Amino acid sequence: MKRKLTILGAGESGTGAALLGKAKGYDVFVSDMGQIKTQYVQELEANGIEFESGKHSEERILESDLVIKSPGISESAPLIKKIRAKGNLVIGEIEFAARHTAAKLIGITGTNGKTTTTLLTYHLLKEGGFNVGLGGNVGKSLARQVVEDQHDWYVLELSSFQLDDCYELKLNIAVVLNITPDHLDRYDYDFEKYIASKMRIFHLLHLGGHAIYWSDDRQIGRNISKANDGLKFHPYSLGGDASEITNDRLFYTPINVEISAPRADISIKGQHNMLNAKAAGYAASLAGVSDEAILRGFKNFKNAPHRLEPVREIDGTKYINDSKATNVDSVYYALDAVDAPIVWIAGGVDKGNDYSLIQALVQNKVKGLICLGKDNSKLFTAFENLVPSIQATDDLIKAIRMAKDLAAPGDTVLLSPACASFDLFKNYEDRGNQFREIVMELA
């Protein structure tokens, strides 16, 4: 008799898990409380996988031998509590997929920089000639790729939600970039629970696996001693013996040989991206990529959109799309990376931001602030005495025109919102795409 597998959520990870479950002989049922996208409906139908949308048939779900839940579903959801109370096993798509591959795994987490570092690590392995797949919180789901399982390595971006649903995952290399408050609504507004979720990645390493972490991060530093014994630890830093970043070069010592890359040769800019590059270089080197391939990969890497993405230059003013910057830490890195007077476009749905963390940087670098959102009061209060000019609008076209009027040759107009996008846009991608399109149409 086939084991009953229920998948809660029919997005990319859920559909990938359904395809893998079907391939591995499970009796698969997919249940989504929302509306399933047409592309996933078509895939499920084409593969003869039963599904429902707009509801959860609890009686059927509770009969399952195994439940795979979407990372977006909280442990506090009533249905999850009922499933757990009945004793059913609940895991995530990453955990399920990893059980069905013999490939080596690199996992990367952190509050900021995950996608950039994951994409760069993947790029460096590709540059080194590795047969490597990209998955997790970016690209195609790991489960979808494991159906055919043609890769020797997978590089995975892992959110705290994905890590929470992993129990026996065995990574070969794990990276923690940084930990700052985020998603606290999912962790009972307890920062310590969020920290534990991120640090969990080091408990998901093979014995003897490589643990890479930024030792200057206070939260990582005070929690690293809780990681499993028997791991190989690789701290990187802004200074000291472990490694070094200077004004001109990036240094790191993955094994025994110091590698030096001119900062000008690293395609992604800003101090935060030097740290991301260092983490990616460590991971790639430990995986066996040659120094030459790493240096070559640093030079020709192209980052994902909406992350300090240069859009165009108009009348000597640069326009940069950093729509992915949805918290204050991300904005700090963006402001720090720009070596020019800045007209800053910010705002949206505030996530409990503490703007005091960037006030000094704003005072030194920002000549004008355009508040873009339905409620801009918190931005006004934080910066009205620090920025020479502050304007507000709930229209992106008007915001960009205001910024253009304030900017002079040599300045940079920077969209780096510090906030979620849902008051005016579908998501941060929609916000960034609209910004790019409007700027490209400017006379």
Strand arrangement within the widest β-sheet reads: 7-8-6-9-10-11
Give the structural class. Answer: alpha/beta
- Given as residue ranges, the uncertain stretches (5+ residues, pLDDT < 50) are 240-247
* Fraction of helical residues: 25-40%
Number of domains: 3
Q: What is the C-level CATH assignment of the largest domain?
A: Alpha Beta
Figure out the total of helices: 17
Radius of gyration: 23 Å
Oligomeric category: single chain
Q: Tell me what the CATH architecture of the largest domain is.
A: 3-Layer(aba) Sandwich
Shape: globular
Number of DSSP E strands:
20
- The N- to C-terminal Cα distance equals 67 Å
Domain Mur ligase central: 108-283
Pfam families: Mur_ligase_C, Mur_ligase_M, MurD-like_N
Subcellular location: Cytoplasm
EC number: 6.3.2.9
Report on this model:
With 443 residues, this protein is an alpha/beta fold. The protein folds into 3 domains: 4-91, Rossmann fold; 98-300, UDP-N-acetylmuramoyl-L-alanine:D-glutamate ligase, CATH 3.40.1190.10; 309-441, Mur ligase, C-terminal domain (Protein-Tyrosine Phosphatase, Chain A), CATH 3.90.190.20. It is built from 17 helices and 20 strands. It has helices at residues 12-23, 38-46, 58-61, 78-85, 93-98, 114-127, 142-146, 160-164, 191-199, 218-223, 271-287, 291-300, 328-337, 359-365, 377-383, 396-406, 428-441, and strands at 4-8, 27-32, 50-53, 66-69, 89-91, 104-109, 132-136, 153-157, 171-176, 205-214, 232-236, 244-245, 249-252, 259-262, 309-314, 317-321, 342-346, 366-372, 389-393, 412-415. Strands 7-8-6-9-10-11 form a 6-stranded parallel β-sheet, covered by helices on one side. Strands 15-16-20-17-18-19 form a 6-stranded mixed β-sheet, sandwiched between helices. A 5-stranded parallel β-sheet has the order 3-2-1-4-5, sandwiched between helices. It is globular, with a radius of gyration of 23 Å. Residues 240-247 have low confidence and may be disordered. It is an enzyme of class 6 (ligase). Its main location: cytoplasm. This is UDP-N-acetylmuramoylalanine--D-glutamate ligase. ATP binds at residues 110-116. InterPro entries: Folylpolyglutamate_synth_CS, Mur-like_cat_sf, Mur_ligase_C, Mur_ligase_C_dom_sf, Mur_ligase_cen, MurD.
